[in-house]
Automatic annotation (TrEMBL):
UniProt-listed InterPro entries: CK1_Ser-Thr_kinase, Kinase-like_dom_sf, Prot_kinase_dom, Protein_kinase_ATP_BS
Species classification: Eukaryota, Metazoa, Ecdysozoa, Nematoda, Chromadorea
Protein name: Protein kinase domain-containing protein
Gene3D superfamilies in the record: Transferase(Phosphotransferase) domain 1
Keywords: ATP-binding, Nucleotide-binding
Pfam families, A to Z: Pkinase
UniProt superkingdom: Eukaryota
GO terms for MF: ATP binding; protein kinase activity
Binding site for ATP: 91
Keyword ATP-binding belongs to the record: yes
Annotated Protein kinase domain residues: 62-350
Keyword Manganese: no
Naturally occurring in which organism (per UniProt): Toxocara canis
Length: 400
């Protein structure tokens, strides 16, 4: 089924038809093979996705234009709504992956639907809008708001340098607001990191979005509206560099843990080499470094990151599992950092103006790639025609 959100309160069911998929996706045997991220079935460029309400005529269709990125269990594509100039993101997840049922997209949808019930637009603005959802024999998929590059991609591939203090602080502030808003609808994220924050497109490139909610966890019981008791043991969920200490210890995570991972991400925004454990692979060694971060942090950290994050770290470290964090207190601490460090947050983001240039470069690159493909098709047709002609009219030689 697809959910087409016609308004904030009205959700109408529909079903989805995929007219074309790659041949590997159509072979059921491929589902039983051990697949890696590279060789699992994907939607081919040009795939048409048609949405309807059960009648013969479709309501509208999308065409897949480009693979934007791949995660552990799914892929994200750029798609165009046929007959319009509007673009969307389509995220897919295999129904089964190496014989195991995958339900991460289901969690993402649950969070997105929870935000449709939030009346304050300011509390929704750091999360993408869900438009449709559906399922084929191979994939589950959702159609959602298209975003720009992630914070990590901006720093590493577009700016190719560390952020200025003003940009780092503004990202930290908006990320904190997004985490707070997520907690308000009863979920924790459990994988806060620069790769899971992205900017909007067009005039929304100054808004930071929190995404990739596949391992989010509902910490509020929806029946009792109370905090769920912690489970005795939970498997590691997150990314080693940014994961909280409770995550390392296989303990139930809470709102405190999202804030702890936000601190690691925030100080790293000021310098990509700032975390002492950034190149450490062993999880227990990383845990030891993180324990040290809260007791006696390396002086090198706060040579580049504002020292005001120390007081925030101390506050977060003392939070308990059920305790509701004082987000306003943390926001105030960030304001004190801005004053103490003389950070002018009125400055534009470091990427302002550069995204248009990137879009133009990408358009030129895609046009060249398309031209090469079309040229190869023409060359192939010509060679076939020549071959056919020679077969029908073999060359002859005349004797003098």
């Amino acid at each position: 089924m697809i959910f087409i959100i016609k308004s904030m309160k009205t959700i109408v069911g529909a079903r989805i038809l995929v007219l074309q998929e790659q041949k590997t996706a159509e072979k059921k045997k491929a589902q039983h093979k051990k697949l890696s991220k590279k060789d699992r079935p994907k939607l081919a460029e040009g795939t048409e996705i048609r949405c309807n309400d059960g009648n013969i005529l479709p309501i509208f269709s999308y065409v897949v234009q480009q693979l934007l990125g791949s995660g552990g269990f799914g892929d994200v594509y750029r798609a165009k709504k046929i007959g319009t100039t509007k673009y969307y993101a389509i995220k897919t997840e295999l129904n089964e992956f190496n014989g195991k049922k995958i339900d991460r997209l289901k969690i993402e949808v649950a969070v997105m639907i929870a935000f449709t019930l939030v009346k304050d637009p300011e509390r929704r603005k750091h999360f993408v809008q869900l438009y449709d959802k559906g399922q084929t024999d191979t994939f589950k998929l959702i159609v959602m708001q298209l975003l720009g590059p992630s914070i990590e991609d901006l720093r590493r591939h577009i700016l190719c340098t560390d952020f200025t203090k003003a940009t780092a602080m503004r990202i930290s502030q908006q990320a904190l607001q997004g985490i707070w808003d997520l907690h308000l609808v009863g979920f924790i994220h459990r994988d806060i990191k620069p790769q899971n924050f992205a900017i909007g497109t067009g005039d929304k490139d100054d808004i930071i979005y929190l995404l990739d909610l596949g391992i989010a966890h509902r910490f509020i019981d929806k029946h009792t509206n109370k905090i769920k008791p912690p489970r005795s043991k939970v498997r590691f969920m997150g990314t080693v560099r940014y994961a909280s200490r409770n995550c390392h210890r296989c303990k139930e995570q809470s709102r405190k843990d999202d804030l702890e991972t936000w601190i690691y991400m925030s100080v790293e925004l000021y310098a990509s080499v700032i975390l002492p454990w950034r190149r450490v692979i062993d999880k227990m060694a990383v845990l030891a470094e993180k324990d040290k971060f809260f007791v006696e942090p390396s002086p090198e950290i706060y040579k580049k990151a504002p020292t005001g994050y120390k007081s925030i770290s101390k506050y977060v470290d003392n939070l308990t599992y059920e305790e509701e964090p004082n987000y306003i207190l943390i926001q105030s601490a960030l304001e004190e950092i801005i004053k103490g460090e003389c950070i002018d947050i009125r400055q534009p983001f470091d990427w302002a103006g550069k995204m248009i240039q990137k879009t133009e470069r990408d358009n030129r690159r895609r046009a060249k790639e398309k031209e090469v493909i079309e040229r190869k098709k023409i060359d192939t047709r010509l060679s076939k025609d020549v071959g056919f002609f020679l077969n029908q009219h073999p060359a002859t030689t005349s004797k003098k």
